[in-house]
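Re-run with default settings, no changes from the original entry. Doing this only to confirm the output is reproducible before filing.
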Amino acid sequence: MKNIILALLLLPFLLGECRHENLTLCGNLGFFPESGTLEICLPSGDSCVAKIPVQENGAFSFQAPLPLGKVYVLRLPEEYLEIPFYAEKQPYTLVMPQDGQPFLTADSLSFHNRWMAWQHQEEGMKRDYAAFCSGYDTISNIQRKADRVRLMSEKFEEIEAFRLQSIRAFAGTEIAQYIVFQNLYFYENDYSFFTQAIQALGDTVPESPMRTVIFEAYDRLKASQLTGEAPAFALPDKDGKTVSLSDFRGKYVLLDFWASWCAPCRAKNRALNKEYPKLKGQGIEVISISLDENKQAWLKAVREDKIQWLQLVDLNGFKENSVAKAYKVAQVPTVYLIDPQGRIVLKNPTEKDMAELCGSEK
Protein backbone atom coordinates (compact mmCIF):
# COMPACT_ATOMS: atom_id res chain seq x y z
CA MET A 1 0.00 0.00 0.00
CA LYS A 2 1.18 3.51 -0.83
CA ASN A 3 2.30 5.67 2.08
CA ILE A 4 -0.35 7.93 3.51
CA ILE A 5 0.85 11.09 5.21
CA LEU A 6 -1.76 13.08 7.07
CA ALA A 7 -0.95 16.36 8.79
CA LEU A 8 -3.31 16.76 11.73
CA LEU A 9 -3.05 20.15 13.40
CA LEU A 10 -5.19 20.60 16.50
CA LEU A 11 -5.72 24.34 17.26
CA PRO A 12 -7.51 25.64 20.40
CA PHE A 13 -11.19 26.48 19.91
CA LEU A 14 -14.16 26.70 22.26
CA LEU A 15 -17.70 26.02 21.18
CA GLY A 16 -20.48 26.39 23.73
CA GLU A 17 -20.01 24.29 26.89
CA CYS A 18 -18.18 21.48 25.06
CA ARG A 19 -14.46 21.80 24.48
CA HIS A 20 -13.66 21.60 20.77
CA GLU A 21 -10.55 22.14 18.70
CA ASN A 22 -10.24 23.22 15.11
CA LEU A 23 -9.17 20.00 13.42
CA THR A 24 -7.19 20.57 10.26
CA LEU A 25 -6.45 17.62 8.00
CA CYS A 26 -4.42 17.80 4.87
CA GLY A 27 -2.32 15.37 2.90
CA ASN A 28 -2.08 13.21 -0.16
CA LEU A 29 -3.23 9.61 -0.33
CA GLY A 30 -1.12 8.96 -3.39
CA PHE A 31 -4.14 7.52 -5.18
CA PHE A 32 -7.76 8.45 -5.88
CA PRO A 33 -10.20 6.41 -3.75
CA GLU A 34 -13.19 4.74 -5.39
CA SER A 35 -15.66 6.79 -3.38
CA GLY A 36 -13.81 10.02 -4.09
CA THR A 37 -14.00 10.85 -0.39
CA LEU A 38 -12.18 10.37 2.89
CA GLU A 39 -14.52 10.10 5.89
CA ILE A 40 -14.01 11.12 9.51
CA CYS A 41 -16.14 8.74 11.58
CA LEU A 42 -16.90 7.59 15.08
CA PRO A 43 -15.70 3.99 15.63
CA SER A 44 -19.10 2.44 16.37
CA GLY A 45 -21.78 2.23 13.72
CA ASP A 46 -21.73 4.28 10.56
CA SER A 47 -21.68 7.69 12.25
CA CYS A 48 -19.82 9.95 9.85
CA VAL A 49 -18.69 13.30 11.29
CA ALA A 50 -17.60 14.67 7.92
CA LYS A 51 -16.79 13.69 4.35
CA ILE A 52 -13.68 15.11 2.76
CA PRO A 53 -13.51 15.41 -1.03
CA VAL A 54 -10.30 13.99 -2.49
CA GLN A 55 -8.71 15.44 -5.62
CA GLU A 56 -7.79 13.22 -8.56
CA ASN A 57 -4.13 13.25 -7.51
CA GLY A 58 -5.10 12.05 -4.01
CA ALA A 59 -4.71 15.41 -2.27
CA PHE A 60 -7.24 16.63 0.29
CA SER A 61 -7.71 19.28 2.96
CA PHE A 62 -10.28 19.80 5.69
CA GLN A 63 -10.87 22.04 8.69
CA ALA A 64 -13.64 21.95 11.31
CA PRO A 65 -14.08 22.05 15.10
CA LEU A 66 -14.25 18.63 16.79
CA PRO A 67 -14.21 17.59 20.48
CA LEU A 68 -10.89 16.54 22.01
CA GLY A 69 -10.32 13.37 24.01
CA LYS A 70 -12.20 11.19 21.53
CA VAL A 71 -11.21 8.42 19.15
CA TYR A 72 -12.01 8.95 15.48
CA VAL A 73 -11.24 6.88 12.42
CA LEU A 74 -10.24 8.17 9.02
CA ARG A 75 -12.10 5.84 6.72
CA LEU A 76 -11.77 4.89 3.07
CA PRO A 77 -15.03 2.89 2.77
CA GLU A 78 -14.43 1.25 -0.61
CA GLU A 79 -10.84 0.30 0.22
CA TYR A 80 -11.85 -1.10 3.66
CA LEU A 81 -9.18 1.05 5.28
CA GLU A 82 -9.52 2.68 8.69
CA ILE A 83 -6.88 4.82 10.41
CA PRO A 84 -7.70 5.48 14.09
CA PHE A 85 -6.48 8.54 15.94
CA TYR A 86 -7.02 10.14 19.35
CA ALA A 87 -7.66 13.88 19.21
CA GLU A 88 -5.42 15.91 21.52
CA LYS A 89 -4.41 19.57 21.77
CA GLN A 90 -1.17 19.39 19.84
CA PRO A 91 0.03 19.33 16.24
CA TYR A 92 0.95 15.93 14.88
CA THR A 93 1.56 14.09 11.64
CA LEU A 94 0.13 10.67 10.98
CA VAL A 95 1.96 8.35 8.59
CA MET A 96 0.67 5.06 7.17
CA PRO A 97 3.73 2.95 6.26
CA GLN A 98 3.82 -0.26 4.24
CA ASP A 99 2.96 -2.55 7.17
CA GLY A 100 -0.39 -0.84 7.62
CA GLN A 101 0.33 0.61 11.06
CA PRO A 102 0.04 4.37 11.60
CA PHE A 103 3.28 5.90 12.82
CA LEU A 104 3.12 9.17 14.75
CA THR A 105 6.03 11.59 14.62
CA ALA A 106 5.33 14.12 17.35
CA ASP A 107 5.31 14.40 21.15
CA SER A 108 6.32 10.98 22.42
CA LEU A 109 4.35 11.52 25.63
CA SER A 110 1.00 12.12 23.94
CA PHE A 111 -1.76 9.59 24.46
CA HIS A 112 -1.91 8.97 20.72
CA ASN A 113 1.82 8.31 20.40
CA ARG A 114 1.80 5.87 23.28
CA TRP A 115 -1.28 4.13 21.92
CA MET A 116 0.34 3.69 18.51
CA ALA A 117 3.43 2.20 20.18
CA TRP A 118 1.27 -0.34 22.04
CA GLN A 119 -0.70 -1.11 18.89
CA HIS A 120 2.44 -1.57 16.80
CA GLN A 121 3.83 -4.05 19.34
CA GLU A 122 0.56 -6.01 19.48
CA GLU A 123 0.37 -6.20 15.69
CA GLY A 124 3.87 -7.69 15.66
CA MET A 125 2.81 -10.32 18.20
CA LYS A 126 -0.27 -11.14 16.11
CA ARG A 127 1.83 -11.57 12.96
CA ASP A 128 4.15 -13.94 14.82
CA TYR A 129 1.13 -15.87 16.11
CA ALA A 130 -0.36 -16.17 12.63
CA ALA A 131 2.95 -17.46 11.28
CA PHE A 132 3.18 -19.99 14.12
CA CYS A 133 -0.37 -21.22 13.42
CA SER A 134 0.39 -21.73 9.74
CA GLY A 135 0.16 -25.40 8.79
CA TYR A 136 -1.95 -26.42 11.80
CA ASP A 137 -4.79 -27.69 9.60
CA THR A 138 -2.42 -29.99 7.72
CA ILE A 139 -1.40 -31.92 10.87
CA SER A 140 -3.22 -35.26 10.88
CA ASN A 141 -1.72 -36.86 14.01
CA ILE A 142 -3.90 -35.92 17.00
CA GLN A 143 -0.97 -35.94 19.45
CA ARG A 144 1.13 -33.63 17.29
CA LYS A 145 -1.92 -31.46 16.82
CA ALA A 146 -2.43 -31.31 20.59
CA ASP A 147 1.21 -30.27 21.05
CA ARG A 148 0.75 -27.46 18.54
CA VAL A 149 -2.50 -26.36 20.21
CA ARG A 150 -0.75 -26.08 23.57
CA LEU A 151 1.94 -23.83 22.12
CA MET A 152 -0.62 -21.81 20.16
CA SER A 153 -2.66 -21.30 23.33
CA GLU A 154 0.39 -20.05 25.21
CA LYS A 155 1.16 -17.51 22.49
CA PHE A 156 -2.49 -16.44 22.28
CA GLU A 157 -2.61 -15.90 26.03
CA GLU A 158 0.52 -13.75 25.77
CA ILE A 159 -1.27 -11.54 23.23
CA GLU A 160 -4.36 -11.29 25.42
CA ALA A 161 -2.29 -10.46 28.50
CA PHE A 162 -0.54 -7.72 26.53
CA ARG A 163 -3.91 -6.41 25.29
CA LEU A 164 -5.25 -6.26 28.85
CA GLN A 165 -2.15 -4.30 29.86
CA SER A 166 -2.82 -1.81 27.09
CA ILE A 167 -6.47 -1.41 28.18
CA ARG A 168 -5.29 -0.70 31.73
CA ALA A 169 -2.65 1.72 30.45
CA PHE A 170 -5.36 3.85 28.79
CA ALA A 171 -8.18 3.27 31.29
CA GLY A 172 -10.42 6.31 31.60
CA THR A 173 -10.00 7.25 27.92
CA GLU A 174 -11.80 6.28 24.73
CA ILE A 175 -8.58 4.56 23.65
CA ALA A 176 -9.22 1.77 26.18
CA GLN A 177 -12.79 1.47 24.93
CA TYR A 178 -11.61 1.28 21.32
CA ILE A 179 -9.23 -1.58 22.12
CA VAL A 180 -12.11 -3.57 23.65
CA PHE A 181 -14.51 -2.53 20.88
CA GLN A 182 -12.14 -3.73 18.16
CA ASN A 183 -11.92 -7.15 19.84
CA LEU A 184 -15.60 -7.68 20.61
CA TYR A 185 -15.75 -10.56 18.10
CA PHE A 186 -13.44 -12.43 20.49
CA TYR A 187 -14.71 -11.19 23.84
CA GLU A 188 -18.34 -11.98 23.01
CA ASN A 189 -17.39 -15.67 22.89
CA ASP A 190 -15.36 -15.83 26.09
CA TYR A 191 -16.98 -14.60 29.30
CA SER A 192 -13.81 -14.93 31.35
CA PHE A 193 -11.69 -12.80 29.00
CA PHE A 194 -14.54 -10.31 28.52
CA THR A 195 -14.86 -9.90 32.29
CA GLN A 196 -11.13 -9.21 32.56
CA ALA A 197 -11.39 -6.61 29.79
CA ILE A 198 -14.32 -4.89 31.53
CA GLN A 199 -12.36 -4.81 34.78
CA ALA A 200 -9.33 -3.41 32.94
CA LEU A 201 -11.44 -0.47 31.71
CA GLY A 202 -11.50 0.77 35.30
CA ASP A 203 -14.15 2.57 37.31
CA THR A 204 -14.34 5.65 35.08
CA VAL A 205 -15.49 4.81 31.57
CA PRO A 206 -16.38 7.89 29.47
CA GLU A 207 -19.83 7.96 27.92
CA SER A 208 -19.71 7.14 24.22
CA PRO A 209 -21.49 4.98 21.63
CA MET A 210 -18.63 2.47 22.01
CA ARG A 211 -19.24 2.25 25.75
CA THR A 212 -22.90 1.45 25.14
CA VAL A 213 -22.12 -1.29 22.61
CA ILE A 214 -19.46 -2.85 24.85
CA PHE A 215 -21.54 -2.99 28.02
CA GLU A 216 -24.69 -4.16 26.24
CA ALA A 217 -22.66 -7.02 24.71
CA TYR A 218 -21.20 -7.88 28.11
CA ASP A 219 -24.61 -7.83 29.81
CA ARG A 220 -26.01 -10.18 27.13
CA LEU A 221 -23.13 -12.61 27.57
CA LYS A 222 -23.37 -12.42 31.36
CA ALA A 223 -27.10 -13.17 31.23
CA SER A 224 -26.42 -16.27 29.11
CA GLN A 225 -23.98 -17.76 31.62
CA LEU A 226 -24.94 -20.80 33.64
CA THR A 227 -25.21 -19.81 37.30
CA GLY A 228 -26.66 -21.11 40.52
CA GLU A 229 -27.22 -24.81 41.20
CA ALA A 230 -25.18 -27.09 38.93
CA PRO A 231 -27.47 -29.36 36.87
CA ALA A 232 -27.59 -32.89 38.27
CA PHE A 233 -26.36 -35.83 36.21
CA ALA A 234 -25.74 -39.56 36.48
CA LEU A 235 -23.46 -41.19 33.88
CA PRO A 236 -21.43 -44.41 33.55
CA ASP A 237 -17.68 -44.52 34.06
CA LYS A 238 -15.22 -46.72 32.11
CA ASP A 239 -16.41 -49.82 33.97
CA GLY A 240 -20.11 -49.08 33.53
CA LYS A 241 -20.64 -47.91 37.13
CA THR A 242 -23.10 -45.01 37.40
CA VAL A 243 -21.65 -41.88 39.00
CA SER A 244 -23.72 -38.87 40.10
CA LEU A 245 -22.70 -35.29 40.75
CA SER A 246 -24.42 -35.54 44.13
CA ASP A 247 -21.80 -38.13 45.13
CA PHE A 248 -19.32 -35.25 45.45
CA ARG A 249 -21.41 -32.86 47.55
CA GLY A 250 -19.14 -31.19 50.11
CA LYS A 251 -16.18 -31.02 47.70
CA TYR A 252 -15.03 -28.71 44.95
CA VAL A 253 -15.55 -30.31 41.52
CA LEU A 254 -13.79 -29.40 38.30
CA LEU A 255 -16.21 -30.60 35.61
CA ASP A 256 -14.58 -30.98 32.22
CA PHE A 257 -16.39 -31.57 28.91
CA TRP A 258 -14.14 -32.95 26.16
CA ALA A 259 -13.88 -35.36 23.22
CA SER A 260 -11.17 -37.61 21.78
CA TRP A 261 -11.33 -35.87 18.38
CA CYS A 262 -10.73 -32.42 19.88
CA ALA A 263 -7.04 -31.41 19.71
CA PRO A 264 -7.39 -28.56 22.25
CA CYS A 265 -9.03 -31.08 24.62
CA ARG A 266 -6.11 -33.46 24.24
CA ALA A 267 -3.68 -30.62 24.94
CA LYS A 268 -5.71 -29.72 28.02
CA ASN A 269 -5.54 -33.35 29.22
CA ARG A 270 -1.76 -33.20 29.15
CA ALA A 271 -1.68 -29.93 31.06
CA LEU A 272 -4.21 -31.21 33.59
CA ASN A 273 -2.18 -34.37 34.12
CA LYS A 274 0.66 -32.22 35.45
CA GLU A 275 -1.63 -30.20 37.70
CA TYR A 276 -3.84 -33.05 38.92
CA PRO A 277 -1.78 -33.99 42.03
CA LYS A 278 -1.83 -30.35 43.12
CA LEU A 279 -5.58 -30.06 42.52
CA LYS A 280 -6.21 -33.26 44.43
CA GLY A 281 -4.13 -31.90 47.28
CA GLN A 282 -6.33 -28.80 47.33
CA GLY A 283 -9.41 -30.98 47.67
CA ILE A 284 -10.63 -30.53 44.10
CA GLU A 285 -12.24 -33.56 42.46
CA VAL A 286 -11.84 -33.67 38.67
CA ILE A 287 -14.57 -35.25 36.55
CA SER A 288 -14.40 -35.44 32.77
CA ILE A 289 -17.47 -36.08 30.62
CA SER A 290 -16.70 -37.30 27.12
CA LEU A 291 -18.91 -36.16 24.24
CA ASP A 292 -17.66 -38.97 22.01
CA GLU A 293 -20.05 -41.21 20.09
CA ASN A 294 -17.48 -44.00 19.78
CA LYS A 295 -16.65 -45.72 23.06
CA GLN A 296 -13.43 -47.26 21.77
CA ALA A 297 -12.15 -43.90 20.52
CA TRP A 298 -12.87 -42.43 23.96
CA LEU A 299 -11.10 -45.25 25.84
CA LYS A 300 -8.13 -45.12 23.46
CA ALA A 301 -7.72 -41.38 24.12
CA VAL A 302 -7.94 -41.96 27.88
CA ARG A 303 -5.10 -44.50 27.63
CA GLU A 304 -2.97 -42.36 25.32
CA ASP A 305 -3.33 -39.26 27.49
CA LYS A 306 -2.73 -41.29 30.68
CA ILE A 307 -5.69 -39.63 32.38
CA GLN A 308 -5.70 -40.19 36.14
CA TRP A 309 -9.07 -38.71 37.14
CA LEU A 310 -12.66 -39.90 36.86
CA GLN A 311 -13.96 -40.38 33.32
CA LEU A 312 -17.66 -40.49 32.42
CA VAL A 313 -19.34 -40.73 29.04
CA ASP A 314 -22.65 -40.15 27.26
CA LEU A 315 -22.31 -41.80 23.86
CA ASN A 316 -25.06 -39.67 22.33
CA GLY A 317 -22.30 -37.39 21.08
CA PHE A 318 -21.77 -33.64 21.06
CA LYS A 319 -25.11 -32.51 19.62
CA GLU A 320 -27.39 -34.88 21.52
CA ASN A 321 -25.62 -35.01 24.88
CA SER A 322 -28.26 -34.06 27.47
CA VAL A 323 -25.73 -33.18 30.17
CA ALA A 324 -23.80 -30.94 27.79
CA LYS A 325 -27.05 -29.21 26.85
CA ALA A 326 -27.91 -28.68 30.51
CA TYR A 327 -24.51 -27.06 31.01
CA LYS A 328 -24.86 -24.93 27.85
CA VAL A 329 -21.73 -26.42 26.29
CA ALA A 330 -21.28 -24.79 22.89
CA GLN A 331 -17.69 -25.93 22.33
CA VAL A 332 -15.06 -28.18 23.81
CA PRO A 333 -13.13 -28.08 25.98
CA THR A 334 -15.50 -26.40 28.44
CA VAL A 335 -14.78 -26.54 32.16
CA TYR A 336 -16.86 -25.57 35.20
CA LEU A 337 -15.77 -25.19 38.80
CA ILE A 338 -18.52 -26.28 41.22
CA ASP A 339 -18.34 -25.42 44.92
CA PRO A 340 -19.01 -27.80 47.86
CA GLN A 341 -22.66 -26.66 47.98
CA GLY A 342 -23.18 -27.74 44.37
CA ARG A 343 -23.21 -24.21 42.91
CA ILE A 344 -21.41 -23.16 39.77
CA VAL A 345 -18.60 -20.79 40.65
CA LEU A 346 -16.67 -20.25 37.44
CA LYS A 347 -16.59 -21.27 33.80
CA ASN A 348 -13.17 -22.17 32.37
CA PRO A 349 -11.33 -21.16 35.57
CA THR A 350 -7.58 -20.63 35.59
CA GLU A 351 -5.26 -22.42 37.98
CA LYS A 352 -4.95 -19.14 39.89
CA ASP A 353 -8.74 -18.85 40.17
CA MET A 354 -9.01 -22.31 41.68
CA ALA A 355 -6.13 -21.80 44.10
CA GLU A 356 -7.63 -18.54 45.37
CA LEU A 357 -11.14 -19.93 45.75
CA CYS A 358 -10.12 -23.16 47.42
CA GLY A 359 -7.63 -21.38 49.64
CA SER A 360 -10.29 -18.98 50.88
CA GLU A 361 -12.39 -21.91 52.08
CA LYS A 362 -9.68 -23.22 54.37
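The chain is about 40% helix and 25% strand. Confidence is low (pLDDT under 50) at residues 1-18.
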